[in-house]
Amino acid sequence: MKAIVYTKYGSPDVLEFKDVEKPTPLDDEVLVEVHAASANAYDWHFLTADVFLIRLMGGGLLRPKKNTLGADIAGKVVAIGKNVTRFHLGDQVFGAAKGGSGGFAEYVCANEKSLALIPPNVSFEEASTASMAALTALQGLRDEGQIQSGNDVLIYGASGGVGTFAIQIAKSFGTEVTAVCSTRNVDIAHSIGADHVIDYTREDFLKDGKLYDLIFVANGNLSMSKFKQALKPNGICVLAGGGGTSIIQLLVGMLQGWWILKTENKKIGSFLANINQKDLAFMKELLASGKVKPVIDRHYPLSDAADALRYLGEGHAQGKIVVVVEHPSQTHERSTAA
Fold first, then answer.
1. Which residues contact 203 (CB under 8 A, 6 or more apart)?
2. Which of 16, 213, 267, 290 has the highest Cβ tally under 10 A?
3. Which structural domains are found in the chain, ordered by start?
4. pLDDT tens digit string along 9-41?
């Protein structure tokens, strides 16, 4: 089968498109014929090791331990381990590849607990975006942010993969959402449900004096003290990790959050997304209902996955970037339009 592989850390130039052995699923795994995979900051960090901590977190000290990328996948089940009970041959699924890598390939194994069925009205391309970024937004808002109907919510960095999901998920909880993004992304933020949009190149969200119950930081380089100023008493600020921010930013946020929690009646927290069966099922329902519609900026064929990651690394994507995998026997059961 064809796959994207790498044997050393570096820019997307180190990626190779080559033939590799097709994987075989273990007892609790399925083999997925990948039809689409989406790119995440997670992939960028493991490709470049731009944060040294990546090397200590299982990436490999001198060279990558895993030679493939691509955590988020969508495709068709073509083989099943003997202990798998939730899926059958031919099921169309989305979720996370085994070990968070290998999705940039024609086939990949995945644990059945890391997958969910794709709703009939959702394309492979759309479904491939609804794992890491979507669960980062969901868990950050619901679990860390304790979101409630009627809350005033600020989404900072609202135009990327995590941010575009965060706007829509926050709205699904019945909140009033203010999105902060650049000029070129104002229309997108409005189109996916933001009640108010602040163009940070023209105005400072702190200047109007509005306070928020919950601030979700999907991306950005402001200090935690800035966000603290915009929180209501007992308000919560959540710094997302694993989707749109750097690991260093996450660790600094944790330290600052601990200090603010110790000294003031406000909470600033950080977390890393956990891909799990329950929350994938939750996202499935949001997708099926139309309450969440993935925003896809660009599509790339598997052979051009390096270009997809190069574009991701520039940091200007509007929503998600998808790698499309074509198969000779593939039927057009789903629309390829995002």
1. none
2. 213
3. 2-131+276-324 (3.90.180.10), 132-270 (3.40.50.720)
4. 999 999 999 999 999 999 999 999 999 999 999
